[in-house]
Amino acid sequence: MSMERELKDLLKTLGAPVVWGAFDRDVGFPRITLQRISTVTRYSLKGRGDLETARVQVNVAAKTYGALLSLGREISTTLTDYRGGSVIRIKELSRRDSTQETGGDVIRLQMLDVQVRYRA
Length: 120
What we know:
It holds the Pfam family Tail_completion_gp17. The chain is an alpha+beta fold. 22% of the residues lie in helices and 53% in strands. The protein has a five-stranded mixed β-sheet. The termini are close together.
């Protein structure tokens, strides 16, 4: 199983809709989107290694700040405690809060950057 699928399936256990990239339709709030920011591949004298380190951004959107904080903490704990499949380790690098106004509504956002070390 790919690292992307593992993380997506892991976060689905929290009860919010999860997708890599963007949702194709409205799924309500709270919701989680994932995107890869960068990947570093290890190499040896024999060629490409089987370990990679990716920086993944986890975007959380919610209607209330309380829901945002609660889900953000759950995501952080779930990811950083996880070891299994192809994932060796996940470390939280940073967390940022923001808002987005759409059609008179204010959506609260939190972006978590995590470093994922995994077997490719």
